[in-house]
Amino acid sequence: MPSWDSPVGAPATSAAHSRSGDSPLTSSKAAVVAAVPAPAAAVPGLIRVPSSIHEVDNGKILGFGADLAEDHPGFGDEAYKQRRAAIADIARRHEIGDPIPRIDYTPDEVRAWGTALRELKLLFPTAACREFLHTFPMEDEIPQLQDISDILTATSGWKVRPVAGLMHPRDFLNGLAFKYFHSTQYVRHHSQPNYTPEPDVVHELIGHVPMLADPDFARMVQAIGVASLGAEEKTIWHLTKVYWYTVEFGVVREGGAVKAFGAGVLSSYGELDWMARGGAELAPFDPYAKQPKMSYKDGFQRK
Question: Which positions are annotated as binding Fe cation (predicted)?
């Protein structure tokens, strides 16, 4: 499932949600189906429906592994690529129920995290929604996934599961149905601390985790996941876009001002600044309507 921030953002329509007074996010009131469907039999042509997180495959990685593209900041850094591969292997070996291994982050990784966090904190007070500000306790030290998972379990009932890279959309969405957020553990290249072309721990923990600690928002995200169980490919693609225009790049009206709640905006200084300065033309969001094309490398969101 696409989940990353970018200095060049995505030229997609920014999902404009509205709310009045002090009411919670309108979009967070989606009802979550209580019962998860029983798994379908292994019959050719049928879509297998997982009955638990143990049946959700986190091994189908679509991209952004150790073999980085030529335009990736870490492409020519062999030590960085080896480091990425080693951390990804930790995720591949992890078993659900076991503690998530702790990473001893390098000074370069800690500096990249700290730089991104300090600059984002300059914008959060005026550009981030109040739910995010209420649940955002990040410090200069990179949090460990197990500690974050424990916090989420206590606040919203969610857990974190490590993953080696960008997951297949169906598997990522299926995980949401069981209140599991799949997160990478590696850090973006230190040469560009405010930029990542793929999901990394900065994006996951700064952008996604604070909002998942909000129970109303977490229920909305789970509803998207439940809708993906057993869905045909066309529906999976639609739900991927729904997730993109809300959980990744959604904004909300708060007391007459526009505030970010999407992780792709909240974890990118350039994207958040662009939104705060009115760079994106807002459009109402209808989850049932056909969604615009997602794009990742064509500049900040234009509308």
Answer: 203, 208, 248
